[in-house]
């Protein structure tokens, strides 16, 4: 039986400041198909990196996700100690989903009103 894969977005904290997107894709690609990797580096007033983290979207089975997190979490890699967790849904993504839902509900309501008018 083939494992069902779903898209998951992971938060990867504790990255060394020199990690590249290709290296992230290679590292997480061992567990599933990487769809996107976004590296974010926060800098101080002088432009020096203070915190580097990433969001990695991966198509992965639940079993491989558990394996990925247990193998990689809290490991030292390229000058940092990885902290891996499921990413929290962003505010923009959440409001976008709510907006889509509201637009769909409104469209259905308008169709029902229009159909009631046509029945007369």
Automatic annotation (TrEMBL):
Localization per Swiss-Prot or TrEMBL: Nucleus, Nucleolus
GO terms for biological process, alphabetical: protein localization to nucleolus
One of the Pfam families matching this protein, by short name: RRM_1
InterPro entries, per the entry: NOP8_RRM, Nucleotide-bd_a/b_plait_sf, RBD_domain_sf, RRM_dom
CC annotations in GO: nucleolus
Function, as annotated: Plays an essential role in the survival of diffuse-type gastric cancer cells. Acts as a nucleolar anchoring protein for DDX47. May be involved in regulation of gene expression at the post-transcriptional level or in ribosome biogenesis in cancer cells.
Molecular-function GO terms, alphabetical: RNA binding
Main location: nucleus
Self-association and partners: Interacts with the GTP form of RRAGA, RRAGC and RRAGD. Interacts with NIP7. Interacts with DDX18; the interaction is RNA-dependent. Interacts with DDX47; the interaction is RNA-dependent.
Domain of life: Eukaryota
Protein known as: Nucleolar protein 8
Claim: Oxidoreductase is one of the keywords in the record: no
Keywords (A to Z) from UniProt: Nucleus, Phosphoprotein, RNA-binding
Domain RRM: 8-89
Residue ranges that the Swiss-Prot or TrEMBL entry lists as coiled coil: none
């Amino acid at each position: 039986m083939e494992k069902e894969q779903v898209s998951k977005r992971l938060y990867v904290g504790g990255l060394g400041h020199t990690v590249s997107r290709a290296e992230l894709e290679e590292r997480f690609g061992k567990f599933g198909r990487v769809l996107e990797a976004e590296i974010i580096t926060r800098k101080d007033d002088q432009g020096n990196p203070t915190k580097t983290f990433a969001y990695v979207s991966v198509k992965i089975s639940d079993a491989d996700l558990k394996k990925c997190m247990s193998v990689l979490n809290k490991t030292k890699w390229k000058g940092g100690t990885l902290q891996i967790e499921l990413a929290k849904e962003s505010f923009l993504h959440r409001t976008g989903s709510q907006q889509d839902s509201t637009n769909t509900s409104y469209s259905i309501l308008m169709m029902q009103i229009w159909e009631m008018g046509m029945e007369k």
